[in-house]
Amino acid sequence: MEHRLLGRSGLKVPALSFGTATFGGTNEFFGAWGSSDVAAATRLVDICLDAGVNLFDTADVYSDGRAEEILGRAIAGRRDQVLISTKATFRFGTGPNDVGSSRHHLLRSVEGSLRRLGTDYIDLFQLHAFDAQTPIEEALATLDGLVRAGKIRYIGCSNFSGWHLMKSLAISDQRGFERYVAHQAYYSLLERSYEWELMPLALDQGVGTIVWSPLGWGRLTGKIRRNQPRPATSRLNSSLVVDLGPPVADEYLYRVVDALDVIAAETGKTVPQIALNWLLRRPSVSSVIIGARNEEQLRQNLGAVGWELTPAQIAALDAASAVPLPSPYFHQRGHFSERNPAPV
Fold it and tell me: Nearest-CA neighbor of 301 among 279, 280, 270?
């Protein structure tokens, strides 16, 4: 397994990491993703470690804390072999302060995650979303204090827009706070808007991107094609998951899948392996999070590494997944491209 530096930090992370949203399945939303218990999770962790995947991503809200508990038990006795990434900001409780990035909520969140994970430190702690009601200085000062206390080692964020991230980095530089080294972002062949603002920012500021849902919210599993019924087991069968997920037009999806099918025939690789391999070649990407309901899915996703798409195959995927650029990006690339080169 290839390991890459996480942004400008000295921490190396595997090109593929494992997401634990499939652990627990204690509510309708996460139950549609999976429901691995401790025994099943332990087996998946075993396979990951054997393959060199040692970064495990979780969050307090995954199955109401149950995913963190299961991960903690699955890695028991081998904490020194793994890197743990967890997140907080979303509502975790019914009280008025059980949500957001306030000092009150972040301190309680970190203590809760440490307890559920059965560890005394978190390798990477990320804000799960931007909280517009908490001053950025308050959130960063709190995270900085947690690093100095040894409870977390690196900080990151997730689902920030470009100005959220850049303002946060500027405040860190100005105040001498710990700096975000990672941004966990949604990016796939079905959603390339990450490239417009966040990718150039990541390259300029040295922020490593950790990609979540790289198979387009379960649409690039190879089981969804034109004129075929959806698979019986899929998170897309849950209206709650579909409603809360990123929308994708059917024709656009089929166009991308058609291109993937052509390359699958050329390479002998599967549709998800090709989609993951494409992401691993993108600038700024430090790690791509893979998930799995079972061993078969995990082993298939692990097959995304150890080989490379040809330039012609990458170009074909780029073309199939291209969408018209919104303003001001079409203007920057079309009218002043000699001074504003595209990052990809």
Answer: 270
